[in-house]
């Protein structure tokens, strides 16, 4: 057969054998390509998802209104703390600053907080150190991506407090 291929006396015969050789060569290439393409391997993939909790208090400011010295405002001013998009349960911590109006001040502890609405001024006194309220913000889930819980604030304005608009910063922190 090889001698026939080398024999150029019949162009037609050479062409036929050449086509056959090309065809066989193609089959061999495709055969090895298909064998290579049909093999597979697995690749391991992983991701580390960290524990996260968020704080989103609503409303973002509290107005106790207008009052007189030596007045108590019941511990019923609601703040809702939401965790939008976290993935772990957390406890709510609170702290605050001194009430100030220009150079006039009164104490942090005149603000109280409680886990439920009260009809009187009562509850735990706010301090400058973050305190665990033991109020649990449940872990958000894929089906419930926002979870929340409530805290209530009250205020006692001391006697002889000079008139003015007093402000205090209350910090709400979710600790997870």
Q: Any overview of this molecule?
A:
This protein has 176 residues and is of the alpha+beta class. Helix content is 18%, strand content 35%. It folds into 2 domains: 2-37, no CATH class; 56-175, Immunoglobulin-like (Sandwich), CATH 2.60.40. The model is unreliable at 1-36 (pLDDT under 50).
List the helices and strands and how they pair.
Layout: H1 2-6, H2 11-37, E1 56-58, E2 71-84, E3 90-96, E4 99-101, E5 104-106, E6 111-114, E7 124-125, E8 131-137, E9 146-157, E10 170-175
Antiparallel strand pairs: 1-2, 2-9, 3-8, 3-10, 4-5, 6-7, 6-9
CATH topology of the largest domain: Immunoglobulin-like
Strand order of the largest sheet: 1-2-9-6-7
Mean pLDDT: 84
Could you say which structural class the secondary elements and strand pairing correspond to? alpha+beta
Distance between the termini: 83 Å
Q: Please mark out the parts with pLDDT under 50 across 5 or more consecutive residues, or reply none.
A: 1-36
Strand content: 25-35%
Number of spatially distinct domains? 2
Q: How much is the radius of gyration in Å?
A: 39 Å
What characteristic shape results from the CA principal axes?
elongated
In the CATH hierarchy, what is the class of the largest domain? Mainly Beta
In helices, the fraction of residues equals: 10-25%
């Amino acid at each position: 057969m090889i001698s026939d291929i080398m024999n150029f006396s019949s162009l037609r015969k050479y062409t036929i054998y050449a086509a056959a050789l090309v065809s066989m060569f193609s089959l061999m290439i495709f055969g090895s390509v298909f064998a290579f393409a049909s093999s597979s391997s697995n690749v391991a993939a992983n991701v580390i998802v960290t524990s996260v909790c968020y704080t989103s208090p609503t409303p973002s400011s509290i107005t106790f209104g207008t009052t007189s010295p030596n007045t108590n405002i019941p511990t019923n001013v609601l703040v809702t703390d939401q965790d939008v998009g976290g993935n772990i349960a957390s406890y709510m911590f609170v702290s605050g600053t001194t009430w100030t109006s220009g150079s006039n001040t009164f104490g942090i502890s005149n603000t109280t907080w409680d886990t439920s609405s009260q009809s009187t001024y009562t509850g735990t006194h706010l301090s400058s150190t973050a305190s665990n309220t033991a109020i649990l913000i449940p872990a958000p889930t894929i089906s419930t991506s926002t979870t929340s819980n409530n805290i209530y604030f009250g205020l006692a304005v001391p006697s002889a407090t000079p008139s003015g608009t007093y402000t205090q910063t209350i910090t709400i922190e979710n600790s997870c």
